[in-house]
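Quick one: structure for this chain?
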Amino acid sequence: MCGIVGYLGEKNTKEILLDGLKELEYRGYDSAGIAVLENGNFSNFKAVGKLVNLEDKTKDYETKGFAAGIGHTRWATHGKPTELNAHPHLGESSYVVHNGIIENYAEIKKELIRKGVTFLSQTDTEVIVHQFEKNLKSELNALKAFSKTISELNGAYAILLVTKSEPDTIFFAKHGSPMLVGISCDDNEGSSERDNTMSCEKYFASSDTPLIGHCSDVNYFEDGDYGYVTSDEIVIFDKDGAKKDPIFSALSQNKLSAQKDGFRFFMEKEIYEQSDVISDTLMGRVGDEEIHFDELDKTLFNGINEIKLCACGTSYHAAMTASYLFERYSKIRTTLEIASEFRYRDPIMSKDTLFVVISQSGETADTLETLKMAKKAGLKTLVICNVDNSSMVRLADACILTRAGIEKGVASTKAFATQVTVFWMLSLYIAKLKNSLEDQKIARQVSLLREIPTHVKVTDEMHERIKRLSKRYLHGHGFFFIGRDVFYPLALEGALKLKEISYLHAEGYPSGEMKHGPIALADPELFTIALLPEHLHYEKSKSNVEELSARDSTICAISALEFDKADDFVQISTCQDYMLEFFEMMIVVQLLSLEISIRLGNDVDMPRNLAKSVTVE
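Got it. Here's what it folds into:
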């Protein structure tokens, strides 16, 4: 989840930019950079990894007067995390930073190369600055060139651009990615900051936190807004090119509150963020009819006859989901291992096995040790991880980053969602390599992948329904979460979420296993959360739930189809495929656990006895 900062004024521009980027670290990144235009000259610094590396590069650099500066933290999408791919990107005399994705960058880039432009990076962002400079040669001024450039871009973006042709100006544009501008003014005439933008310092950011302590008033840009700022003015045009006035509102001075963006808990915020982070996970990987993983060498899969998945906790549930997808789509034998058990066995490890470890942090001790075992045994290794430069990423032969951003809630939500998204993509990527699935079927699955962000958006109606329903589930002697196929690992994950933050006993079971023992517990004080997908084993799952209902278990059904035996019913939308139902039901079980925990008065983000990254055995 990339971050943007910008500053125009006479203070220490370098420090303001670096401090702003620090406030965005919680979003996650793999590289960072700043560019400062001062006295007609640019200074540019980039670094891979943590911000301390960028700070080291800039330690001998100082800004002493008026300057225009922009900064960026990047999650790699188009191109690997390298200094050349880090923002800001340079044209002949301009720099740009950008969040989002330019969907038509390939055709713009092709035309620019035909005209003799040399590209330094693999990113979609670099086309913005070169297209601007091409337009600058034919338009009357930089604003017209910038406006024309924006009109030629398709996709989502928040953009800041500085150019030597207008050295006292920062140009901006916003469509689909958040951005705001704040002001800090020397008010000698007694008017409020909201009404006075004369002689004001201007601060840009992609979220509130970098501006806290610098600004008391901010303007949130709307989709389609573009324009420029100088020390004397803020000029905004709407999507139709009509000039509009900024609308300032007071900025909360509570950084923790700002990071929560008004949500009660980080976990709640992270549930809502899943649409955005899954979009980040898909960026640059979902083609028209197939999956692309630029970070993988296809030879990694040469001679591989088995995939062994190894993980703990929530990551284990994502791996279990993957085991169904690999065998169904990739047609490759897949085995599943709990890392904390695997390392204490004498496992048989053959060299035709691809050993895959999954970890949000990349530091989970048990999983890391199994990776070392696989390396020692000579197996090819792959890590699915959220943190670049983590121990697992450095050790494994290959890595796929999930791009979930930093997850502050101990109970994982968006990390799980992005892991499953990556595995769905990877199963289709391998299917293409092995010719195990027809191109037409792969293309359909690719089309479905694009729909995930829409299906994980939390609606007010859905959340309010679950909030009201949760008060019925505060007491009793336990919960069964049940599902079949990929909905079994989702049932396990739903039960784990509830256990972690509510401290209520919950178990996940395959629906068909009820009659093999667990149904002995059924009574009105046993709550059954039934996952009933329309497109996968619906009738069989329905029969299993009816068996529990006949024994007076309290049933909460989650489905697109109404179920008359349910005491409570949460309706998801009608989906084209069971995997989209999976993601919708995921949202429901996450919210249900959240609301039950809140009603019980628990600290949702910091549940007792748990740590975010388990670095001990």
